[in-house]
Write a structure and sequence with these properties.
Shape: elongated
Order of helices and strands: EEEEHEHEHHHHEHHHHHHH
Number of helices: 13
CATH class of the largest domain: Alpha Beta
Helix content: 40-55%
Function: May be important in protein trafficking and/or protein folding and stabilization.
CATH architecture of the largest domain: Roll
Organism: Latimeria chalumnae (Coelacanth)
Pfam families: PPIase_AIP
Keywords: Cytoplasm, Nucleus, Repeat, TPR repeat
Protein name: Aryl-hydrocarbon-interacting protein-like 1
Number of strands: 7
Length: 331
Amino acid sequence: MDDKTMLLNVDGVKKTILHGGTGELPKFLTGAKKKKVTFHFRTLRCDDDRTVIDDSKKVGTPMEIIIGNMFKLDIWEILLSSMRIAEVSEFWCDVIHTGLYPIISKSLRRISEGKDPTDWHVHTCGLANMFAYHSLGYDDLDELQKEPAPLIFIIELLKVELPNAYKRETWAMNNDEKLQAVPILHGEGNRLFKLGRYEEATAKYQEAVICLKNLQTKEKPWLAPWLKLEKMINTLTLNYCQCLLKKGEYYEVLEHTTDIINHHPAALKAYFLRAKAHMEVWNEAEAKADFQKVLELDPEMRRAVKKELRVLECRMQLKNEEDKLKYKGMF
């Protein structure tokens, strides 16, 4: 073992400092005074090619965890606790520490893709997960899940923030905190939407939905607490769809609104937004059918529906004229 390599006082871990950090080792307090640690990481296989599994720098967003908050991959807390600010170190970790990594990686990848990190396992009970193999949706993670192996983590510690100096991320909140965060996120989303900042509003609505879906997994489906959360989720999802319409992402609107309608056939706003999305992709018959359903559910929407139908009629006339000219030119 050379001078650059040292063994941590932990079985199955070897540390190599690649770039020295600055200052003293941060002191991490548990209990109420927890610190947030921000770092970049790269995960590699221990093969001849040192195959990269994940790289936060390629994703473009550093990882953040709250030390002492029972993060599923607890070895990371141990590794980070051995580092100074700006230090870059390589850690070889035996399989006893890496068994849960495929599941953690799955969640991190979904977050980076803007998806709910929890919904992929919602419908499988805990016992079934223990005794059956389920695909994680990524071939490399499936392979690692079937055959656990030692891994190499290259970590760059960026910063350690003192208690109360950082905004709590929703994934790090407990159930009560998540429920309290939802109306705040909802309000921020509405404000951003009115300002025309649709991308930012989308992120707020999405974060609120993820909070609620996480809470909903802990309730029995179709009972009162579950239904209350479902109503909140649908409201936020439809706000999210309004942003998507402004951004021109019409097919995603069709997907979300159809899912809501399939489960809640009286969801008036879902029909209205789906009709507008159908208009944008030239589905004339489908748009008219949805607008008709809106009128059946609420006759007081007649003026708004008439306005949209006039727009649809004008647009279809223009499209038909353009098509005639196009085909005339072809022949």
